Amino acid sequence: MATFTGKIWVLGDDIDTDIIIPTEYLALKTVDDMKKYAFSPLRPELAGQIQPGDIIVAGKNFGCGSSREQAPEIIRHLGVACVIAKSFARIFFRNSINNGLLLIESDLYDHVQEGDTISVEPGHQIVHDGVVYPISPLPQNLMDILEAGGLVRAMQKRNGLC
């Protein structure tokens, strides 16, 4: 994956899937219908402010709660380039990869403010105000899924269907 730069939105610890997309909006027909309600219990205006290429930076345990697959799918449909957090709930992590959403574990949360701009070189580093934060690479099989845009597309590509 290529290096990218984006504006950050800072969220706290324990951002659960009910905050990412409240249950009452899961009945809407499409992800595009749902995405305008993303993060509404915490910050109702946030979904309308996020621009393609922006980055979410959060504390620990991002994506905890129920295992709803729509949560990472909605974040991706908002145009978020990646989510960087101190830690992620395990099932959210895997659902995110399967939906083509890059997640990066880092303590960056302790060093940034909302509105800052960072550069991310997936698998290598994050750069903020000239300071380099090394990051661990994901295994190649997960990078292949992300680069394909999600698990379904990766399997279609692997089987010559696209």
Outline the fold blueprint.
Blueprint: E1 4-10, H1 17-20, H2 31-34, H3 46-49, E2 55-58, H4 70-77, E3 82-85, H5 90-98, E4 102-105, E5 117-121, E6 125-128, E7 131-134, H6 140-148, H7 151-158
Helix pairs in contact: 6-7
Could you characterize what this model shows?
This protein has 162 residues and is α/β, with parallel strands linked by helices. It has a single domain, classed as Aconitase, domain 4, CATH 3.20.19. The chain contains seven helices and seven strands; from the N terminus they run E-H-H-H-E-H-E-H-E-E-E-E-H-H. The protein has a seven-stranded mixed β-sheet with strand order 4-3-2-1-5-6-7, covered by helices on one side. A hairpin with a 2-residue loop joins strand 6 and strand 7 (131-134). The longest helix is centred in the middle third of the chain and has 9 residues, at 90-98. It is globular and about 45 Å long.
Entry keywords:
single chain, about 160 residues, alpha/beta, Aconitase, domain 4, 7-stranded mixed beta sheet, 7 helices
The average pLDDT value, as a whole number, equals 95
Helix- and strand-based class?
alpha/beta
Name of the top-level CATH class: Alpha Beta
- CATH homology group: Aconitase, domain 4
Annotation field: number of helices: 7
Question: Would you count the extended β strands for me?
Answer: 7
Count of the separate structural domains: 1
The side-by-side strand order for the widest beta sheet comes to 4-3-2-1-5-6-7
- Intertermini distance: 20 Å
Poorly predicted regions are none
What is the alpha-carbon Rg in Å?
A: 15 Å
CATH architecture: Alpha-Beta Barrel
Biggest sheet details: 7 strands, mixed
Q: At the third CATH level, what is the topology name?
A: Aconitase, domain 4
Beta-strand residue percentage: 15-25%
The dominant shape is globular
Give the SSE order as H and E letters.
EHHHEHEHEEEEHH
**How helical, in percent, are the residues?**
25-40%
